[in-house]
Write a structure and sequence with these properties.
By secondary structure, the protein is of the alpha/beta class. It is built from 15 helices and 13 strands.
Length: 423
Amino acid sequence: MDAAPDAVPACADDGTWLACIECGETFAPFEDVRYTCDHCDGLLEVRYADLPTFDDFGAGASTDGPDRGVWRYREALPFDLGVTLPEGDTPLHRVPRIEEIVGVDGLRIKHEGMNPSGSFKDRGMTVGVRVAQELDVDALACASTGNTSAALATYGGRAGMPTRVILPQGKVAAGKIAQASLHGARILEVDGNFDDCLDIVQELAARGVVYLLNSLNPFRLEGQKTIGFEILEQCYADYGRFPDRIVLPVGNAGNTSAIYKGFRELVQSGALDVAEVPKLTGVQAEGAAPMVEAVTEGNDEISRWEHVETRATAIRIGNPVNAPKALPGVHNTGGTAVAVSDNEITAAQAHLATEGVGVEPASAASLAGLKKLRRQGRVDDDELVVCLTTGHLLKDPEAAYKAGGDPEPVPNDADAILEQISD
Ligand code: F0G
């Protein structure tokens, strides 16, 4: 984690370049469209000549853009400003009643559902769509369990670029399709699961038809790493220390990779000690848990699950493509991974709602996972923990109805209603 920063290669553009995480080959960032290494097909990562410290965050705000949200961290990003709505600067909710029941020193909920399109994906798209403009591509595309497509449609629309989204038919929550539809994306539904959709969109991107904005795209993860920066700054402001642990739902493992990368950069700039890096703790649904399997068995690679099922459709994923970036994040921070049942997810969703925090099922996996790890004695009671909730309740209205109470028919009469509610 505290490896010395790389020497700046000749291909760097204004101190920014791409590097393969497997073979170390470097590439110019904005000359050609590229998602993986030309030589070994490894995942690419964005690298910088200068890495900021906390003091650099918010610098240059008055001329370069907003001093809040993702672009507050422009010193850690490839551009000073992107296609913005704006995004980030999400609340870190206190949940005192849940904190007491979970039994930890501190519990906060980082609610990413409060982003413009209702999920953390907006942080990635504000950067990714800016890069698409730089590369002068014709059309944008992604495969999605729903939120990525909603965010891409939103930001593609904002940038005035044509957008295509490839979705697993019948497996995407209603709110997300409604967003992609209204924001003008062309919605292509495949009779297959998310992993099939991602295979297809990668094929279309390889043929040069579309620019891929899934989390395989290294620039998207740059925006998402700002979640980690915000959590550190918000916790420090409130507690005078950083959190011991961040618990987050895992699908393609992009977010886990992104947050880990942000922390590594802070360690490399000298802003953070290795010992201060929060333990990254991933949660998956039992029916779609290849990352948990790899962490539990101590494997360096994941094995693709062909058949996946969970009510938390956002994380119904059997082949987390960012696992080579995310697994070291879990291992090197002393984190872990845990699988939870759909019923545990629904119970956590309802529990969060009692504190006024409305999230979609996949988001509630983080709290469900924390509860399970506490029961198993794998999280200590003196920890300061942040659970990430990744998407808003309204993304999946059907799941919310099922987790909550049913409406009651009442007579059109105040006295009769009074009688009924005094039961
Ligand atoms: N939570 C929500 C609400 C999501 O939509 C996703 C991923 C995740 C968690 C998992 O994040 O992939 O970075 O590990 N949704 C993607 C999509 C796959 O298409 O919207 P990850």
